[in-house]
Structures are given as structure tokens and as C-alpha cells.
Design a protein that fits this description.
Layout (H helix, E strand, L loop, with lengths): L8 E7 L3 E8 L2 E9 L2 H4 L9 H14 L9 E5 L10 E3 L2 H8 L10 H10 L6 E4 L13 E4 L2 E2 L6 H14 L8 E7 L3 E7 L2 E5 L19 H8 L6 H8 L4 H6 L4 H9 L3 H24 L6 E6 L5 H11 L5 E5 L3 H13 L6 E2 L19
Parallel strand pairs: 1-4, 4-6, 5-14, 9-12, 12-13
Antiparallel strand pairs: 1-2, 2-3, 5-6, 7-8, 9-10, 10-11
Helix pairs in contact: 2-4, 3-4, 9-10, 10-11
The structure holds adenosine-5'-triphosphate and butanoic acid (BUA).
Enzyme class: transferase
Pfam families: Acetate_kinase
EC number: 2.7.2.7
């Protein structure tokens, strides 16, 4: 008998704020990936992110058409998952309730909200099922981690779940353990920075990346003294939108140094720019401090600290953090991220029976009073 292996044929869709990435996989093999750019002036005509749906769908269909791509043989579509109700990590079938929540932007605006909507519109005419994997709203916080200090404000989990969980799996494998057996601290260091305490496969605490928790980042302010934020908000100097933009988009390196490129800041520091040097060091310091907090969450029982994302390519970033947190556990470095592969891998685990498929409609860790304000400002 020949070794006959029929590979799954997957389309992967990942909408970002200024582009939509699309890739084609046969089994684990990435055949091609395209980055469809959406110029700012074209996006500017859409009042809400969800209004971009047909525009992005047309661009996606055009790309596939230009490639003479045949949709009929596609097994499944894997899409980036956005701001939905809080759910456990895993792979979710795109269902009507999910589509409705995303169409209505019930849990906030985010480019990744378009993933499931695009996948469904593209696949359903052919009967192709769509899935999302570890969406940014994965929320596995323990009750104690939800307490903010003010009953009016409840902590929620919004983070780089897709990359964090993928790198955590790699790290566990390197340690000879299953993800579900390991205690890990994963620091995703990109344009946004989120640092999660992974206890035996669940992210029991993590800084909310989009609402201004945790370290500052190349373009976000991170946590700020609350009373000073109130003073700024009522100073008359900023509109609501401007202030939110300072926290998310124009904070961090952008605010201090006018660039969101960590690479550029590092180069400026190396060339003798003292301000750049101080701010670069401060970012590493704040990341280390957050990692230390996660070590306390895990009661010191930490198998490894994992550094990932674009900033983990920087030797200086890695060494500055390692110097401060190396006493906690070995530091493993997996620079960059590959969200397209992470999405494909998740759906393949389900198609191959290695992981159970989850239902959005029937699942959700839930908050009380879900209808109260959910951030619509991201
Ligand atoms: N070799 C390097 N040295 C220093 N910084 C680097 C290097 N490579 C990338 N970076 C920095 O990494 C940052 C971008 O990281 P990344 O690509 O993970 O972010 P993103 O995908 O835009 O945002 P996010 O990770 O929040 O989704 C930039 O500030 C970039 O300058
Ligand atoms: C990816 C969602 C979380 C963040 O941007 O910080």
C-alpha cells in the first residue's frame, strides 16, 4: 500500500488595522501568503470597523481571483478572532450568535472582529466551515484576578492569546511537558505588550493590552497613575478620542520619542541619545516588573519565562529582561510571531481530532452584567 496522505486545504484570514493577510495551507505547509494593504484614505470613509466588511471582502475575492484560486476544494477557513464575549482558549466554530455579536460590535471595535465575518461570507456559499482560534477575548482569569479595586471597574482579559498560547506550547514541548502540565510566564513584546501567567494551560492572569494595563509599549502608555489620568481628562486639553489615542496608539515610545520602532530607539540609544537610552531601558524594566508579578501569581512555581514578539529579536531587550528575571526560571526566547501558522495549526488540531471543537453559542466564562459598558474604543 502506498503512503497515501490527503492534506487538509485551509484558507487563513487575518485582518489587521491597515491590511488583511490571507494564506493558503495544505496540511501544515504554508503554500502562499498575501498581505492586502488597505490605504488609510480608503479606510477613512468607514465610520465603524465593521463597515469595512464588504470593502475587505471584495479585496480578498480579487486576490483569490487573481491567483485563479479554486475555492471548491477548501476544507475549512481559519480566521483571527476578535472582541467577543469572554471565552476559554481554543478553537470555535463560527456560528450565528458570533456573527451577530461581531456585526453589532457588541464587545467593541477591533480589526480582528472582521475575521469571522469575512470567513463566513467567503466560505458559506461553498458550504466551507469557518473557525476562529484563541481570539483576543480569551478570558481564563481566576475570580481573584478580576478584582480591580473599584467595583465599578472589572478587570477583563484582552491579550495576544493566539501567539502566547502557541509559544507556550512550544516552550512546554522544549521542557518535555504538555502545555497543560506546565507553569509558564509568556511575554508578548510587540506594538502591544501583554504578559500572561499560564498555569497548566490556562492564562489565569494577564494585563489587558487594549485598555491601558501593564508595561508601556512602542505605542501604548500602559498603566498610568489613575488620579493623574482623571486630571488630564478634565483639563480641557483633550477630547475623549484624543485621550484614548494617547493611551493606545500615541503613548509609549511614540509619546516620548516620536517613533513606534523599537529598532530605531535602540539604534538612537547606541548612537549616544540619552533620552532614547533611558526610555528603552524603562520599557525593559517595566516588562521585567510585570513578569515578576506573574511569578507571584504562580507562587514562584515557574517552569520558564518565554519572550516572544518583534522586540524579542533585540538582543538588548532580551538581556535587560533576563538580567532582572533570570532568577525566576530559565528564559526561553521565541522571537516574532506567525499568526497565520498559529491559526492553521489550531484548526488542524480540531480536524485531526487532537482537540475538541468549542461552541461560541453555548460557551463563555461570562461576567455578570455583560451588557454594561464594554470598551468600544479600540
Ligand atoms: N531586530 C529588532 N530589534 C529591535 N526591535 C525590533 C526588531 N525587530 C522588530 N522590532 C520591533 O518590534 C516592534 C514590532 O513588533 P511586532 O511586529 O510583534 O508588532 P505588531 O505585530 O505590529 O503588534 P502586536 O505584536 O502588538 O500585534 C517594532 O517596534 C519593531 O521596531
Ligand atoms: C492582540 C490584542 C491585545 C493587544 O493588542 O494588546
Amino acid at each position: 500500500m502506498g503512503d497515501l496522505k490527503i492534506n487538509e486545504r485551509l484558507i487563513v484570514i487575518n485582518p489587521g488595522s491597515t491590511s488583511t493577510k490571507v494564506a493558503f495551507f495544505t496540511g501544515d505547509e504554508k503554500q502562499w501568503v498575501e498581505n492586502i494593504a488597505h490605504p488609510a484614505d480608503e479606510l477613512a470613509v468607514f465610520p465603524r470597523v465593521v463597515d469595512q466588511l464588504d470593502y475587505r471582502l471584495d479585496a480578498l475575492r480579487r486576490e483569490l481571483h487573481n491567483k485563479n484560486f479554486d475555492m471548491s476544494g477548501v476544507t475549512a477557513i481559519a480566521a483571527r478572532g476578535g472582541l467577543l464575549k469572554p471565552v476559554s482558549g481554543g478553537v470555535y466554530a463560527v456560528d450565528e450568535v458570533m456573527l451577530e455579536d461581531l456585526s453589532e460590535e457588541r464587545f467593541g471595535q477591533h480589526a480582528s472582529n472582521l475575521g469571522a465575518l469575512l470567513a463566513h461570507k467567503l466560505g458559506s456559499p461553498y458550504g466551507i466551515p469557518s473557525y476562529i482560534v484563541d481570539p483576543i477575548c480569551v478570558d481564563e482569569l481566576e475570580p481573584v484576578a478580576r478584582i480591580s479595586g473599584l467595583p465599578q471597574i472589572r478587570r477583563r482579559s484582552v491579550f495576544h492569546a493566539l501567539n502566547q498560547k502557541r509559544q507556550a506550547r512550544w516552550a512546554a514541548q522544549e521542557l518535555g511537558k504538555k502545555y497543560e502540565e506546565a507553569n509558564l510566564i509568556v511575554a508578548h513584546l510587540g506594538g502591544g505588550i501583554t504578559i500572561g501567567a499560564h498555569r497548566r494551560g490556562r492564562v489565569v492572569d494577564v494585563n489587558n493590552g487594549v485598555d491601558g494595563e501593564g508595561p508601556f509599549t512602542p505605542e501604548r502608555s500602559g498603566s498610568l497613575p489613575a488620579a493623574d489620568v482623571v486630571r488630564l481628562a478634565f483639563s480641557g486639553r483633550y477630547t475623549w478620542e484624543e485621550l484614548l489615542r494617547l493611551i493606545n496608539g500615541r503613548g509609549g515610545f511614540v509619546a516620548y520619542l516620536g517613533t513606534n520602532s523599537a529598532r530605531e530607539v535602540e539604534e538612537r540609544a547606541a548612537a549616544g541619545d540619552e533620552e532614547a537610552d533611558l526610555i528603552f531601558t524603562a520599557l525593559c524594566y517595566q516588562v521585567a516588573r510585570e513578569i515578576g508579578a506573574c511569578a507571584a501569581v504562580l507562587a514562584g512555581r515557574v517552569d520558564a519565562v518565554v519572550l516572544t514578539g518583534g522586540l524579542a529579536y533585540s538582543r538588548r531587550v532580551v538581556e535587560e529582561i533576563r538580567t532582572r528575571v533570570g532568577f525566576i526560571a530559565p528564559v526561553l526566547v521565541f522571537p516574532g510571531e506567525d499568526e497565520m501558522a498559529a491559526l492553521a495549526e489550531g484548526v488542524l488540531r480540531v480536524l485531526r481530532g487532537e482537540e475538541a471543537l468549542r461552541s461560541y453559542q453555548y460557551e463563555g466564562v461570562g461576567w455578570a452584567n455583560m451588557e454594561e459598558k464594554v470598551s468600544g474604543d479600540n
